[in-house]
Write a structure and sequence with these properties.
Largest sheet: none
Shape: globular
Distance between the termini: 9 Å
Helix content: 55-70%
Number of helices: 4
Radius of gyration: 11 Å
Length: 71
């Protein structure tokens, strides 16, 4: 799936918000919060791309670049 600049910016904002509190969160929380945030931002992201974002957030203690993950 291809995303425009505005979509990537919205996705990045959601990823940043979810990343900020994912450390120590119960399993499944990151996926739920990411999904909820994307819905609130009214951005459609495919299931495979959502999973890639979740894995990147859970694996990286630093900043996750949504454009790189989805690129």
């Amino acid at each position: 799936m291809s995303y425009g600049t505005t979509e990537i910016e919205a996705i990045q904002a959601v990823v940043d918000r979810v990343s900020s509190y994912q450390d120590g969160a119960p399993e499944g929380t990151v996926a739920k919060e990411l999904r909820d945030g994307l819905n609130e931002a009214d951005v459609e992201v495919g299931e495979d791309d959502q999973q890639r974002l979740v894995e990147a957030i859970e694996a990286d203690a630093g900043e996750v670049d949504a454009a790189d993950v989805l690129g």
